[in-house]
Design a protein that fits this description.
- The structure holds 2 protein chains of 2 kinds.
- By secondary structure, chain A is an alpha+beta fold.
- Chain A is built from 9 helices and 17 strands.
- Chain A has helices spanning about 10-25, 55-75, 85-95, 100-115, 125-130, 145-155, 185-200, 290-315, 335-340; strands at about 35-40, 45-50, 95-100, 165, 170, 205-210, 210-215, 225-230, 235-240, 245-250, 255-260, 265, 280-285, 320-325, 330, 340, 350.
- In chain A, the strands form 4 sheets. Chain A has a 9-stranded mixed beta sheet with strand order 1-2-6-7-10-13-14-15-17. In chain A, strands 3-5-4 form a 3-stranded antiparallel beta sheet. In chain A, strands 8-9-16 form a 3-stranded antiparallel beta sheet.
- In chain A, β11 and β12 form a beta hairpin.
- In chain A, α4 (about 100-115) runs parallel beside α8 (about 290-315) and α7 (about 185-200) crosses α8.
- By secondary structure, chain B is of the alpha+beta class.
- Helices cover about 20% and strands about 35% of the residues of chain B.
- In chain B, the strands form 2 sheets. Chain B has a 4-stranded antiparallel beta sheet with strand order 2-1-7-6.
- The N and C termini of chain B lie far apart (about 60 Å).
- The chains are: A alpha+beta, B alpha+beta.
- Chains A and B meet through α1, β1, β2, β7 and β8 of A and α1, β7 and β8 of B.
Chain lengths: ~350, ~120
């Protein structure tokens, strides 16, 4: 019988095999090592995930966040008493209002993003949103508003460029301007929440506010993994791993809507027509800053399948996925490289690089 | 090295990929349902047997249906029924909420496929 080659290596091989098995077995974690907490704030459910934080510190962080979100919600609410409603009352009565520095900064940032979006994210169409009945916790009922009322508000063309912010004052030259920060405030609140967590020394976290989120750090030895829900059927459309500090925001026609005589009316109003934007089902944006991702998701939803790349470039957005009425998935190449689809999409429309 | 050594080593080497898949991938179904009413401490309940769970919130009683490892809002006293229309939760990490009744439910597992769901 021939002697086997290199018999002196057998003990080493045996040891290595045993070590591999032990290593793999050691990876059998007892459970998900993530602290999770949920609370109701900002008109939605806030889902907090923290990795590598002991429970007392995690609970302290969660309580602090809940307080902060509750306060921001009250200050920035579009139709309940608070600082923003006071500002709107001042604009309605005198064309100007006093605002504190935090509100002034919030409004300035909303105005800046609105300009970059060519006004497709329009934070001053509060009267139009109210006319559609979306200034209510519950979806409206009954027929859509009368066409002439909608036309009247659209013709007044309130725009963020009508507003000047200085010396603790906001001044509008257009009497139709009313702030509704619904497509921006949640993102801004998440950014403040992440700052607060970082001040507490927390480096690995997700703040998920009703499906829109920002994630910092990692889940232990791997990136955070996010599933993007399919806009038209149960389950996940695609997944993505986040790179240290990124936000994922989706604007969809399924979020707040009502149906009348078989037709769906959703809450994302195209400021140019005064009607819900019709060509898009959902727009997903990844951006480091949650407030930018929030405003951009709305702007790109309104822009629709043809115009979104130009608006994305102007807003500095590098990753976009848009699902249109026909179910086609519009992507830029960088986004495609990051997404992992659950099943092969039927139709992908690739844009040029952003 | 004896024949037994070789057989044993072959078995161990063939088992390695299975061990890898079992321990290193994150494909594990949800095991429990976390339910929370307003600011109260959450309760966690197993996903078997199939049953209905009644939860009393500020505006009335919401009914949660647990069936075949999944969960959903079957009924809720809210006007819009957004929670009911959100449908079945099928995998660990997914959550649904009735905002007016301040009730949230979430499937949990030891190793969820996703850390959060965007929508």
């Amino acid at each position: 019988m021939p002697r086997p080659a290199l018999p002196q290596l057998y003990p080493l091989l045996r040891t290595l095999t045993l070590a591999l098995v032990c290593l793999l077995a050691a990876c059998n974690r007892a459970g998900d090592p993530v602290y999770r907490d949920q609370f109701f704030a900002f008109g939605t459910l806030i889902d907090l995930s923290l990795h590598g934080v002991d429970t007392p510190r995690a609970e302290q962080a969660s309580r602090a966040l809940e307080q902060a979100f509750t306060q921001m919600h009250s200050d920035w609410h579009a139709w309940q008493p608070g600082a923003l409603q006071q500002a709107n009352a001042g604009l309605a009565a005198h064309g100007q209002a006093s605002v504190d520095p935090a509100m002034a900064a919030l409004i300035q940032e909303a105005n800046r993003l609105s300009t970059l979006s060519n006004g497709l994210f329009n934070p001053v169409i509060g009267r139009l949103v109210a006319l559609w009945g979306f200034h209510n916790d519950e979806p409206p009922q009954g027929p859509p508003p009368a066409a002439d009322r909608i036309r009247q508000l659209v013709e007044q063309a309130p725009a963020s460029t009508d507003v000047r912010v200085d010396d603790g004052q906001i001044r509008s030259r257009n009497p139709a301007v009313r702030y509704d920060l619904g497509a921006f405030a949640k993102g801004h609140a998440i950014d403040r929440g992440i700052e607060q967590l970082e001040e507490l020394g927390i480096q690995n976290a997700i703040i998920n506010a009703g499906g829109d989120l920002r994630a910092i750090g990692r889940h232990g030895n791997r990136p955070w993994r996010i599933g993007i829900r399919d806009p038209r059927k149960p389950g996940v459309l695609a997944s993505i791993e986040l790179a240290g500090d990124e936000s994922v925001f989706t604007s969809g026609d399924y979020e707040r809507f009502y149906e009348h005589e078989g037709r769906r009316y959703h809450h994302i109003i195209d400021p140019r027509s005064g009607y819900p934007a019709g060509a898009t089902v959902s727009a997903t944006v990844i951006h480091p800053v949650a407030a930018t991702a929030d405003a951009a998701a709305t702007a790109l939803f309104v822009a629709g399948p043809d115009a979104w790349p130009a608006i994305a470039r102007q807003m500095g957005v590098k990753y976009v996925m848009l699902v249109d009425r026909e179910g086609r998935i519009h992507l830029n190449p960088a986004m495609q490289a990051r997404l992992k689809f659950e099943s092969e999409p039927e139709a992908i429309v690739m844009s040029e690089a952003l | 090295m004896t024949r037994a050594d070789r057989v044993l080593m072959a078995i161990v080497l063939c088992t390695l990929p299975l061990l890898y898949l079992h321990f290193w991938t994150d494909q594990e179904p949800a095991t429990v349902l976390r339910m929370q009413v307003a600011d109260m401490d959450p309760t966690v309940t197993p996903l078997t047997p199939d049953r209905h769970v009644q939860l009393a919130g500020p505006i009335g009683e919401s009914i949660i249906e647990i069936r075949a490892g999944q969960a959903r809002f079957l009924d809720s006293p809210c006007p819009g029924k957004v929670c009911v229309h959100s449908g079945w939760l099928r995998e660990a990490g997914q959550l649904a909420a009735c905002l007016p009744n301040r009730i949230s439910i979430q499937l949990l597992g030891n190793r969820p496929r996703f850390d959060a769901i965007n929508f």
